[in-house]
Design a protein that fits this description.
heterodimer, A: alpha+beta, OB fold (Dihydrolipoamide Acetyltransferase, E2P), five-stranded mixed beta sheet, 14 helices, 35% helix, B: 24 helices, 55% helix
Chain lengths: 463, 471
């Protein structure tokens, strides 16, 4: 099924979309590009500004399309880029079975949803020009004085931000002291409102990440049994004190800044020579999507490194506004691929960006690795480097779920040396077979199982 | 050191909970906390938080219960490559009915669902028999009982307790097929000790191989059982054996709603005419009487045999009467009368009521009926599926009128991507593997994309080896 460039031009909402698409219509930006055997559907994965790639798909019969990026433009530049590559045969679209994520979209979409319609006051197509979009803009030569002025302004901004954060952290410590003075019993009872207030203050003080963490604190605390909440409150507030002190000691430390203020951009991680890059075989353990109190939706993809070099786990983390609506999953749990990940600089690299993804024939059969560290060390070791960490991914040895009198699940290692409480409930297969290897998140008091290997094959854990 | 910290933590936590300063209670860290009270509290908080987060985790109870391994079933689970497809079909249809149809389909083809995709609950009576071990596993998981010995032997009254309920029901069902007398003897000894929810499905097993030898036992149940539903079911089994309860005034009143006339000049034949249903009250009364009657007694009151009554029935004249007759036969008719009635109803519009009769038909009979109504009565695939369930293997269903209707609907200009989901699922369920493959080719030719999720059931049918026992 052919598509011509005129149709892409008409489909684009404006010239800037075409311009952006021209930059994306390059094979190096894409992976997993394919076309259905009947030639009607095309798809591909495009690296965007987030940690996860965007999944892009289009139906060439009516140009219906979908992309998992959060852009409000429809179609977005990724869709236009994909169609452009198809129209100009920029890269080979390998005929393949339609992936499940494309089929899922197909089942949900409305007929003609992507058909280009001409609204009455539409601008003439000539306003959007594909060829013009391809032309490179002449590079503007910058005046050295301007550059110096800009650098000085940036340094001033950075200083202002740092001061604002330090003020906000003072307010935070003051607030923590107040909670202790007023009693943790009252804090637990009124935790949501109190946390909201200080979180708002931290947002004003440019400590947005810390604000988000405190906004989610009530959720974590109230998930504990009532009797355990004062202890939970001490742990949570104690970590905040540690983080505030760490920031004061090294305000320029990228990792601490990431935990307090904001993360580096994708570009700065990729251009940083210290960035750890790991090319390995990865398995998608799970994807967690959570709507946060600050109106953002966080999308966390947990990956397991099936090779022996580099960190055992990787976490791809993206945020997008809840108002954008439901976003398609980027990965399917259990999926395996060979790929290069760039880890954010850290004492314990975990958060990463997906740089490139290749097909992975030999990843399909790879076994899960053997846990290298004793369970107790897995749970506590990372706290030595980052004592404010809330979630620690762990790879557990053979074990089994056991139930207490109330039916609450516990993971118990085969040698009986470790017994850990499991979050939520465990039902069905998870409780009825040996768990040969288990990938889970330890949050200091509960284990959230991401996935596990059993004699029945791989099974997913919680949600 | 850790012990000292641990000892201090109790009073530190208590103080903070109440809102008083805790640093004085943590002498072990006095050097680290310093002299300034507010700073000391924050330092203590940081230290205690770390200690409590690392060293104090929930203590497991002394007694933890480990559930037994989920047993392997008699049939293999679907191949790994097809699990996502099964998962997607299960997710697309939330209704239990559809799930049951898919499970029946898989079992008929010699496969079972992977336990990560689906597992039955202990009381899931609709789950195919092959899942009985998983039902019992779910029963063990939900109860606190210890695992009982599973007897591999034939079920007897003595080893009754050794079987878990679902396995026991399957064993009883097998015993009833091979030795009806022995199965009844076991039930005579054990039925009364079970609760009503269990008694009813166990008693329903007697429908297989029903004979006059069962009459005394059934009469006892019909007279003495504590549960009305169980009594009613025993009465319906008795009615199938010609021992219906409806005699006397009620049956005389009911028979007055029907009259037997002769028609035809050369080949004279009997026809049933419907009388006295001019008012809603009369129709209501007739329906109430039919609900409590049995087919043999009604036929006797009209001086006919049940077979003659069904043969003389005037179908498509009185829809309510048609519906009542099919349900009366389903409840109280013999197996052959059920087959005869289904056959007669399938020739006319009353075929809409076939679904009341089909649960009592053998799989082969169901498939034949579904095939016939598809070809002659313009039934939809969904209705054919209601009759045949997941065990049919129809050849070329797409060439039936429903196929032409489906293709026309899919080709409509305003067709939506979610159209005909029900019909395509039903087609995928009732078609043989070869027919499913042909249907996929035809539907792709008609413009449906290969990746269209509406074709999932057809794709599963095509991809799954048919290892089942054909009826």
């Amino acid at each position: 099924m052919a598509i011509d460039l005129k149709a892409i031009e008409q489909l684009a909402t404006d010239q800037s979309s075409l311009k952006a698409a021209a930059g994306l219509a390059k094979p190096t930006k894409w992976s997993g590009v394919g076309v259905s055997h009947d030639g009607a559907l095309v798809w591909g994965e495009c690296a965007g500004s987030g940690a996860n790639p965007y999944r892009v798909m289009a139906d060439l019969r009516d140009l219906g399309n979908k992309c998992t990026c959060p852009s409000r433009k429809f179609p977005c530049k990724h869709v236009l880029g994909l169609l452009w590559m198809k129209a100009e045969a920029v890269t080979a679209f390998a005929p393949a079975d339609t992936p499940a994520w494309v089929s899922d979209w197909l089942g949900r979409r409305r007929a003609g949803a992507g058909t280009p319609k001409a609204p009455p006051n539409v601008a003439p197509a000539a306003d959007k020009d594909l060829r013009a979009a391809q032309r490179a803009e002449p590079e503007q030569v910058e005046d050295p004085k301007d550059a110096a002025r800009r650098e000085a302004a940036a340094a001033k901004r950075s200083e202002d931000t740092e001061r604002a954060i330090l003020d906000a952290l003072d307010a935070l410590e003051q607030w923590i002291g107040d909670q202790l003075r007023m009693g943790l019993s009252a804090f637990v009872d009124d935790v949501t409102a109190r946390c909201r207030r200080i979180a708002a203050r931290l947002v004003d003080g440019k400590a947005a990440v810390l604000a988000g963490r405190i906004d989610e604190l009530p959720g974590r605390l109230l998930a504990l049994p009532p009797g355990d909440r004062p202890r939970g409150a001490v742990v949570e507030l104690g970590k905040l004190v540690l983080l505030a002190r760490a920031f004061r000691a090294t305000p320029r430390d990228a990792e601490i800044r990431r935990a307090v203020a904001a993360s580096e951009t994708r570009e700065s991680v990729l251009s940083n020579p210290e960035t750890l890059r790991v090319n390995a075989r990865w398995e998608v353990l799970a994807e967690q999507v959570q709507t946060r109190r600050d109106g953002l939706v966080s999308q966390t993809t947990w990956l397991l490194n099936l090779d022996n070099d580099g960190p055992r786990f990787a976490m791809l983390l993206d945020f997008f506004p809840a108002s954008v609506g439901r976003r398609g999953s980027v990965f399917t749990p259990g999926e395996r691929f060979q790929g290069e990940l760039a880890f954010y600089p850290s004492r314990q690299p975990l958060r990463a960006l997906l740089v490139a993804r290749e097909s992975a024939e030999d990843a399909i059969k790879a076994e899960w690795p053997t846990p290298e560290t004793a369970v107790a060390d897995c749970l506590t070791g990372p706290l030595l480097a980052e004592p404010w960490t809330l979630e620690i991914p762990v790879l557990l040895p053979t074990g089994r779920i056991a139930l207490d009198d109330a039916g609450h699940p516990w993971w118990r290692s085969a040698d009986g040396a470790n017994t850990l409480p499991v979050a939520g409930s465990a039902e069905g297969l998870l409780c009825g077979t040996d768990l040969k290897r288990t990938a889970a998140i330890w949050s200091g008091n509960r284990l959230t199982i991401l996935a596990t290997q059993t004699s029945w094959g791989r099974i997913g854990g919680h949600g | 050191m850790a012990e000292a910290i641990y000892d201090a933590m109790g009073s530190v936590l208590t103080r903070w909970t109440m809102g008083s300063a805790a640093a004085p209670a943590a002498a072990v860290w006095s050097a680290e906390l310093g002299a300034e009270p507010a700073e000391a509290e924050l330092r203590l908080l940081a230290l205690s938080g770390q200690f409590l987060g690392v060293a104090v985790t929930a203590e497991p109870p002394l007694e933890l219960r480990v559930l037994p391994d989920i047993p392997a079933l008699a049939l293999p689970t679907v191949p790994e490559a097809l699990r996502p497809l099964v998962r997607r079909i299960l997710a697309a249809f939330m209704e239990t009915q559809r799930k049951t149809e898919l499970l029946d389909f898989l079992a008929a083809r010699g496969w079972t669902c992977h336990p990560a995709e689906w597992m039955p609950a202990a009381n899931d009576e609709d789950a195919p028999d092959v899942y009985a071990p998983w039902r019992d596993w779910a029963g063990i998981a939900a109860s606190n009982s210890v695992v009982r010995r599973q007897a591999g032997d034939q079920l007897t009254a003595d080893n009754w307790e050794d079987f878990w309920p679902a396995a026991r029901k399957v064993a009883l069902s097998e015993l009833r097929r091979s030795d009806p007398e022995a199965a009844r003897t076991v039930l005579e000894a054990k039925l009364a000790s079970e609760n009503a929810d269990v008694r009813l499905p166990l008693l329903s097993l007697l429908a297989t191989g029903l004979s006059e030898a069962d009459i005394p036992f059934l009469e006892g149940i019909a007279a003495n059982d504590r549960a009305p539903k169980v009594k009613a079911f025993a009465a319906s089994l008795l009615a199938r054996l010609g021992k219906g309860p409806a005699v006397g005034e009620d049956i005389a009143e009911l028979s007055a709603f029907f009259s037997v006339k002769m028609k035809g000049l050369i080949r004279r034949s009997r026809v049933i005419q419907f009388e006295n249903v001019k008012t809603p009250a009369q129709a209501h009364r007739r329906a109430a009487l039919l609900e409590s009657a049995d087919i043999a007694s009604l036929a006797r009151a009209l001086s006919l045999t049940p077979q003659e009554l069904v043969e003389a029935w005037s179908w498509d004249v009185d829809r309510q009467a048609d519906a009542a007759l099919t349900s009366l036969v389903a409840r109280t008719g013999t197996d052959s009368l059920v087959a005869q009635t289904a056959e007669a109803a399938s020739q006319c519009n009353a075929s809409f009521f076939l679904d009341t009769l089909t649960p009592r038909l053998a799989p082969g009979q169901k498939s034949e009926l579904a095939e016939r109504v598809l070809r002659t009565r313009n039934f939809s695939f969904d209705m054919a599926k209601t009759i045949a369930g997941g065990t049919a293997r129809l050849e070329n269903p797409l060439t039936a009128p429903a196929g032409a209707t489906l293709l026309a609907a899919l080709r409509r200009d305003n067709a939506k991507p979610s159209d005909e989901l029900t019909e395509l699922f039903a087609l995928g369920l009732i078609a043989s593997r070869t027919a499913a493959r042909q249907a996929l080719e035809r539907l792709n030719g008609a413009g449906l994309l290969q990746g269209d999720p509406r074709l999932d059931m057809l794709r599963l049918n095509t991809a799954l080896d048919d290892n089942g026992v054909k009826p």
